């Protein structure tokens, strides 16, 4: 006998003891053993353990019974299948026992076993067999009407099995349905409720026939309406099915909704409640199918949201009662309460379910926003007076959803949609703000905390959606704010919500609207700073920081006298700033708040200022608070009050310098910003040694590994060069060498490049030793001039030449005398046949950057030199020469542009390069200077728009598009006219030109383009494939950069777009279809779920296709890639919630696992997907 078997035998022996403590301890020890992964039981031990545990389920001691049940969970995975079946058989038999305790414990046991069964995806057959055994017994137990408690337990367990393992019970689905349907008419409501839950889980995995049978039965019973009680149950059942499997119920809505609408008018409040719950579920789960019924559903919601038959909302009396703050008013209310007893009134449930349904409609139909503001918004506002707290909370939720839908999209997309109908809902909301305030402001002083919290949550959302909209209503809101902050019955959350609202309105409203109310607002806020609950303190400090900006704004002139309030604000914040044993968030906010006080009110602090700054110095030394302190010091240093920081600079500067070597990026960036401000505003208080300790740290910060940190460090150096030029001599060679390395980086562009350019300009002006124009130019260009003569330098990326050229031009612009010699030198370098391609490339790019801002007409041979370079064997040199001609022309249009146009007309071989030069001219020249030449350019471009070479046509199209933006009213109609051209090449050029007129920023061309873009989109139906392709590219560009242009065209354009997705064997691109499916699985999983049965077959066909023997290698590769793409789509489908409940998908998954080839392919795809998410599978740019 092994050690394990011996130990188990001992435990089993103790379990037979007459002492309950022995039995308990032995069962507990057995559970510990079973939970070990390493334990292996032999057959005999298995049998004995199972037998003993089943016996202990009938133990007289409840604690022993409970432990025995817990043991069943880990035991399931440790014993053979037939033992599990023995356990299940016994438990099922016990469930039918007369003993209630045994029934209960066996029910728990079955649930434990079900939860521990291995999922079917592991390929285990045990799960399916055990489930079938349980199900057969459960359906029998449910059919027995005698004992309701047995039925309830059996229904509960059946729901568990169906929710977790429903797919394994295909063969039982029909019998389960036949067993559950009669329970919907059970005399016990609890039985009906659990039957509905079980049906909800069944519909997730059952096949189409069973689902159809269920739905037909429910529809027939709804029509029959044998009793109101059963009708209620059927409507609840439909709502439950919709919540669980809404993607399947859509096809039946046409028949269902008229019936449910009809039942809304039956005088039964419970029935109405269930009707609205069903509507809510339909709205959320079947948005497309319910669209045509939304008006009638919305109308019912609006009707029943006011349904309160036992209460009289007479507005006039109500207003009178509110005005009469007398004892009499209270008496009347008392009488009213006696007269209308609310004990039996459940009409509030109807109102609540109607409000929830409205919230579902609002949150799913952004497209109906304008209609909502016409109908729903006034109706909801009028119901803010609702007397029932729960209903009022849901009405507030519905209105908050409406506000969230109205919230403008803060993005480039919204910026490009300005002056569009998107703003109409905002304007409508603005007009309704007075009504909202009228309905809410008195409620802010109600006793009900829940109502007040709802009011503040709604008002906070309103202030976020429409900043500044409450400016005229501050006097009405302040008493409510003060009341909630001072009322003793206010909960902590109430105070936090109130402070949060106050913070929002202080941030996004004009400062002067608060000035009359500072006296009332400030004392309760200051009291909250001293609150013992840290969250209230933290929120109060945020509000205080905003209040400081309100009472003494530094950005606008202000007559408000802040002096009387400074002492209270300062003392309350100082107390929190000094405290060491407080919450981290409070520490940080106390530092930020005090920073704001010193910044805005520092001149009022007199003798308190220096001790406060010393505290900042202490906080700067603390690792936890140093980042927040750096930001606070930055704020103080930038204050126009010129706060005296000298007492802390000597000690603080070295500390700040040390932060630059810390491995905390945010700290480095904030410290550099702080140092920059200190150098600008306190240069006379800084000593050379203080600046040196910072300069030592800079070389390590300038690196291509972190461009943003490099950019901020270089900006600091630029400030140093301008404010403290004497310190530049101390700049070590390492700083400069790091800067030059950065210039040569392929990542250099944008902000970092601009920062380097500014620094070089500031540096050369200081005339520091070894940093003159000549020295800097030499160091900048030396890697290129020392490169191998055979070609472009292998050590430098193409981007580096552009960066160096920009630096050369920047230096030349501040040293014009020396620049002349450099320009001549570049021209000589280009003419010199011995110059390498790298040198010529740099020379042309530098001439381009210099020529853009400087007139180079004095260089008479420049034109010839550039044209000669167009014949260079190096593509890089040709491209650089083309770029140079375009940019030099920008600096001198009068001389160069006519020359360029003449060359384009007369030099067909150089045409492509010359057109690129022209593109640079059009892109970079101011519109006014271009206008005299527009006609000539336009005529020339149209001569070349039918060129057979696609590359040339694309450049022509870009030139036409950018030129059209210069004078849209005149040129856009001309482009439109060209759509009727007989040449497909000309049409494709015109459509591509339109693509280049669309940008993500607002432009004068937008309204004109919107008016005629429909004509250009008609080319989606063009007979020529290439024209349709470029039309699609133009449509794609509009959709991503300026959706407002095409929104009104979607109804006509989309059918043609979908037409292009049809499979045409001659243009087959199946792979794209799979990529689109993977993307759709992420974007709209519910819609994909609805069409799953149609999708699986084509995927199965592709994954199981075999290439004919003897096919060429390319055919095998193509098919392999196609399979991989299809399998990626399968992997994406499997991420959809509830997909595992689909029988079709479960079967396909089993097929994939069973086939070795498909299985290994699927595993490799899953590994790939960990590094590449499905959202990256489709390039949307």
From TrEMBL:
What family does the entry list?
A: Belongs to the CAND family.
Its GO CC terms are:
nucleus
* Pfam families recorded: HEAT_EZ (PF13513), TIP120 (PF08623), TPR_CAND1 (PF25782)
Residue ranges constituting the TATA-binding protein interacting (TIP20) domain according to the UniProt record: 1071-1152
Please tell me the species this chain comes from.
Salvator merianae (Argentine black and white tegu)
Asked if Acetylation is a keyword of the record, the answer is: yes
What is this protein called in UniProt?
Answer: Cullin associated and neddylation dissociated 2 (putative)
Aminoacyl-tRNA synthetase in keyword set: no
């Amino acid at each position: 006998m092994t050690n394990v078997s011996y130990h188990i035998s001992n435990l089993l022996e103790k379990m037979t003891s007459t002492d309950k403590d022995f039995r308990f301890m032995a069962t507990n020890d057995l559970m510990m053993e079973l939970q070990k992964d390493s334990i292996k039981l032999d057959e005999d031990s298995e049998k004995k353990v199972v037998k003993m545990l089943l016996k202990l389920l009938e133990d007289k001691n409840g604690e022993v019974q409970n432990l025995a049940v817990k043991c069943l969970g880990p035991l399931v995975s440790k014993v053979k299948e037939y033992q599990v079946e023995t356990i299940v058989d016994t438990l099922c038999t016990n469930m039918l026992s007369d003993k209630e305790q045994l029934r209960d414990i066996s029910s728990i046991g079955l649930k434990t076993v079900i939860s521990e069964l291995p999922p079917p995806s592991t390929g285990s057959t045990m799960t399916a067999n055990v489930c079938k055994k349980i199900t057969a017994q459960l359906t029998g137990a449910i059919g027995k009407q005698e004992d309701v408690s047995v039925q309830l337990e059996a229904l509960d367990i059946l729901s568990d099995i169906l929710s977790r393992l429903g797919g394994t019970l295909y063969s039982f689905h029909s019998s389960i349905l036949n067993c559950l349907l009669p329970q919907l008419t059970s005399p016990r409501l609890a039985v009906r409720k659990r039957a509905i839950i079980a049906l909800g889980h069944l519909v997730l995995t059952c096949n189409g026939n069973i689902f159809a049978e269920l739905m037909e039965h429910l529809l027939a019973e709804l029509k029959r309406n044998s009793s109101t009680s059963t009708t209620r149950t059927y409507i609840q059942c439909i709502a439950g099915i919709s919540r669980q499997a809404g993607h399947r119920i859509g096809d039946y809505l046409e028949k269902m909704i008229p019936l449910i609408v009809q039942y809304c008018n039956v005088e039964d409040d419970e029935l109405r409640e269930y009707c609205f719950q069903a509507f809510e579920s339909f709205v959320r789960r079947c948005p497309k199918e319910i669209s045509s019924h939304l008006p009638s559903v919305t109308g019912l919601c609006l009707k029943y949201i006011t349904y309160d038959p036992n209460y009289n909302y007479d507005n006039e009396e109500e207003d009178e009662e509110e005005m009469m703050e007398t004892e009499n008013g209270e008496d009347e209310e008392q009488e009213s309460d006696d007269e209308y007893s609310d004990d039996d009134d459940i009409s509030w449930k109807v109102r609540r379910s109607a409000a929830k349904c409205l919230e579902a409609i609002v949150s799913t139909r952004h497209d109906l926003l304008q209609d909502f503001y016409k109908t729903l918004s006034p109706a909801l506002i009028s119901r803010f007076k609702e007397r029932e707290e729960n209903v009022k909370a849901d009405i507030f939720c519905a209105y908050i959803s409406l506000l969230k839908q109205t919230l403008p999209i803060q993005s480039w997309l919204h910026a490009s949609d300005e002056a569009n109908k998107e703003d109409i809902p905002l304007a409508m909301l603005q007009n309704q703000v007075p009504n909202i305030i009228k309905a809410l402001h008195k409620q802010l002083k109600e006793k009900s905390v829940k109502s007040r919290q709802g009011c503040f949550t709604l008002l906070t959302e309103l202030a976020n959606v429409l900043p500044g909209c409450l400016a005229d209503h501050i006097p009405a809101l302040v008493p409510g704010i003060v009341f909630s902050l001072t009322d003793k019955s206010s909960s902590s959350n109430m105070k936090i919500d109130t402070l949060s609202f106050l913070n929002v309105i202080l941030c996004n409203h004009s400062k002067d609207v608060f000035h009359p109310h500072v006296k009332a607002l400030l004392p309760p806020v200051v009291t909250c700073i001293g609150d013992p609950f840290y969250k209230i303190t933290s929120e109060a400090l945020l509000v205080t920081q905003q209040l400081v900006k309100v009472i003494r704004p530094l950005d606008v002139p202000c007559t408000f006298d802040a002096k009387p309030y400074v002492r209270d604000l300062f003392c309350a914040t100082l107390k929190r700033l000094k405290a060491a044993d407080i919450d981290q968030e409070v520490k940080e906010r106390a530092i930020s708040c005090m920073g704001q006080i010193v910044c805005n009110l520092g001149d009022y602090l007199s003798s308190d200022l220096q001790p406060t700054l010393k505290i900042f110095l202490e906080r700067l030394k603390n690792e936890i608070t140093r980042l927040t302190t750096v930001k606070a010091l930055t704020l103080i240093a930038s204050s126009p009050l010129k706060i005296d920081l000298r007492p802390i600079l000597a000690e603080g500067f070295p500390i700040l310098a040390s932060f630059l070597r810390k491995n905390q990026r945010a700290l480095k960036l904030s410290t550099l910003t702080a140092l920059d401000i200190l150098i600008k505003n306190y240069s006379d208080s800084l000593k050379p040694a203080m600046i040196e300790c910072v300069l030592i740290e800079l070389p390590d910060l300038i690196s291509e590994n972190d461009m943003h940190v490099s950019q901020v460090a270089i900006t600091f150096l630029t400030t140093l060069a301008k404010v403290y030029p004497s310190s530049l001599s101390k700049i070590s060679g390492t700083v400069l060498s790091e800067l030059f390395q950065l210039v040569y980086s392929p990542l250099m562009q944008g902000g970092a490049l601009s920062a380097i350019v500014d620094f070089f300009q500031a540096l050369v002006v200081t005339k520091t030793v070894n940093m003159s124009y000549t020295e800097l130019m030499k160091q900048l260009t030396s890697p290129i001039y020392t490169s191998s003569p055979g070609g472009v330098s292998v050590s430098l990326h193409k981007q580096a030449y552009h960066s160096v050229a920009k630096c050369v031009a920047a230096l030349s612009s501040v040293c014009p005398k020396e620049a002349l010699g450099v320009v001549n030198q570049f021209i000589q370098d280009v003419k010199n046949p011995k110059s390498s391609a790298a040198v010529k490339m740099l020379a042309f790019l530098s001439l381009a950057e210099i020529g853009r801002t400087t007139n180079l007409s004095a260089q008479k041979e420049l034109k010839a030199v550039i044209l000669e370079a167009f014949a260079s064997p190096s593509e890089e040199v040709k491209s650089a020469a083309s770029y140079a001609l375009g940019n030099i022309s920008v600096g001198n249009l009068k001389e160069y542009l006519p020359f360029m146009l003449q060359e384009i007309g007369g030099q067909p071989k150089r045409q492509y390069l010359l057109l690129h030069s022209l593109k640079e001219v059009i892109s970079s020249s101011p519109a006014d200077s271009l206008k005299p030449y527009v006609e000539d350019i336009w005529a020339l471009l149209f001569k070349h728009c039918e060129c057979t070479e696609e590359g040339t046509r694309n450049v022509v199209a870009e030139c036409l598009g950018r030129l059209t933006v210069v004078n849209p009213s005149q040129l856009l109609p001309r482009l439109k006219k060209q759509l009727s051209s007989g040449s497909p090449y000309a049409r494709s050029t015109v459509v591509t030109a339109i693509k280049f007129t669309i940008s993500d920023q607002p432009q004068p061309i937008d309204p004109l383009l919107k008016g005629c873009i429909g004509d250009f989109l008609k080319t989606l139906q063009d007979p020529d494939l290439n024209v349709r392709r470029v039309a699609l590219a133009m449509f794609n560009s509009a959709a991503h950069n300026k959706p407002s242009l095409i929104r009104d065209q979607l109804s006509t354009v989309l059918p043609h777009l979908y037409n292009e997705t049809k499979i045409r064997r001659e243009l087959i691109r199946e792979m794209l279809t799979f990529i689109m499916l993977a993307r759709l699985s992420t974007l709209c999983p519910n819609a994909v779920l609805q069409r799953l049965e149609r999708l699986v077959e084509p995927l199965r066909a592709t994954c199981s296709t075999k290439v004919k023997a003897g096919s060429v290698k390319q055919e095998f590769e193509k098919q392999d890639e196609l399979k991989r793409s299809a399998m990626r789509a399968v992997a994406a489908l499997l991420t959809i919630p509830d997909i595992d409940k689909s029988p079709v998908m479960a079967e396909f998954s089993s097929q994939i696992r069973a086939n070795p080839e498909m299985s290994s392919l699927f595993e490799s795809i899953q590994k790939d997907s960990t590094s590449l998410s499905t959202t990256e599978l489709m390039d949307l740019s």
